[in-house]
Write a structure and sequence with these properties.
The chain is of the alpha/beta class and about 375 residues long. The N terminus and C terminus are likely disordered.
């Protein structure tokens, strides 16, 4: 059997012939290079269409060796096993491609010696910029490597990591308050909170709950603030503890959807109907949140907006690295109301019928004695 014929490599010369323009014009369009004479929009569009039609793929190594942008972005992800980052990674790839970039991935969920070489690996691949997803406080060597990176760095959801680069994050405090305001509007006062144990001991969402309860109700009832692993089992276990309190909550807010879904499972197995007897609010709006029973009310993390802003920032820094000032741009989560929240249940009052029976009996006794 003869070996499969390789597909011929498409060059800029091929695109120039196809689009009926000069090779230099093709180079300036594909490299998004500044020009003294502007390139007409229809010419630019014709070049891009010809490149797509012919299946042109730039050679990152060759571009990097001659000092041109490689159109590669290095993305370092804290933990691929977290469902939250699955959605973030997908948005990152889509947005990068929209800017003409491919993505090279790295992972820090491993030994520190593996982390130490990660930035070097990404730079060897000639990435134009590095985007870091997640809290890297537990990886000091990786952070040190980033400080010596020769390409722009943009951080997303940094948690407790120091703000050393342009950073894009969610306004967690605003999100927590929105969820708690929703519960209060439904008449809930006995509101508990479960904080997930996240890398770097990130407690901003827990602190936002404490501040809210102090402002609205004068403080947090004993036992109402709990912490657990960021797992389904963690949420299950901690809800059982909350429902075992002398005065259990009528609503529970959590710092992640994973914990909230674990709480829903515990409520079901204990026969506590959600939302009739207990309301539950999550945070993040991961994909499964719409498919729980009941569907989870949660705070939707603005992943698309955050990633879009971060990639645009990274691409801008590739063109002008001098604007790489540390700072945080925050995006506010959106409350998504589904079926896991409802009006607070009526407080259980002593049976009035017993009181009436005793009163009637007493009156009957008095009448009998008078007779």
């Amino acid at each position: 059997m003869s070996p499969r014929a390789r597909r011929p490599i498409v060059t800029m010369r091929d695109i120039a012939v196809e689009a009926a323009v000069s090779q230099s014009t093709v180079s300036r369009v594909l490299n998004d290079a500044p020009t003294t004479v502007p390139i007409a929009p229809d010419t630019r569009e014709r070049v891009m269409e010809a490149a797509q039609r012919l299946g042109y793929r730039p050679n990152p190594l060759a571009r990097g060796l001659r000092g041109a942008p490689t159109n590669l972005i290095g993305a370092v992800v804290r933990d691929f096993s977290d469902p939250f980052y699955a959605g973030a990674v997908e948005a990152l790839v889509v947005e990068s491609m929209a800017h003409g970039y491919n993505v090279v991935f790295g992972h820090v969920h491993g030994r520190h010696d593996e982390v130490a070489a990660l930035t070097t690996v990404l730079e060897t691949r000639h990435t134009d910029a590095i985007v870091v997803l997640g809290d890297m406080q537990a990886h000091p060597q990786f952070q040190e490597d980033l400080r010596h990176a020769h390409v722009p760095v943009v951080a997303l959801w940094p948690g407790t990591s120091p703000i050393e680069y342009p950073t894009v994050d969610a306004d967690d405090r605003a999100g927590i308050r929105a969820g708690l305001d929703h519960l209060v509007s439904l008449g809930h006062k006995r509101i508990a909170f479960v904080g997930a144990e996240l890398p770097g001991d990130y407690r901003v969402r827990d602190e936002a709950y404490v501040e809210f309860m102090r402002e609205r109700f004068g403080g947090t009832p004993a036992g109402y603030l709990q912490r657990c692993p960021n797992t389904l089992a963690g949420g299950d276990a901690v809800l059982r503890a909350l429902l075992g309190l002398p005065e259990p909550p009528t609503a529970v807010a959590t710092s992640t959807d994973l914990v909230a879904i674990g709480a829903l499972h515990a409520a079901y197995t204990l026969g506590v109907t959600v939302p009739d007897k207990l309301s539950v609010v999550g945070f993040d709006d991961i994909l499964i949140a719409t498919h729980t029973v009941p569907a989870l009310t949660t705070l939707r993390m603005p992943i698309s907006a955050i990633v879009k802003h971060a990639i645009a920032r990274a691409v801008a820094l590739v063109r002008d690295p001098t604007t790489a000032e540390p700072g945080v741009d925050r995006f506010e989560p959106t409350l998504i109301v589904r079926d896991s929240t409802a009006a607070a249940p009526e407080p259980i009052s002593p049976p009035r019928s017993s009181g009436r029976t005793r009163s009637t009996a007493a009156a009957t006794g008095r009448r009998a004695r008078k007779g």
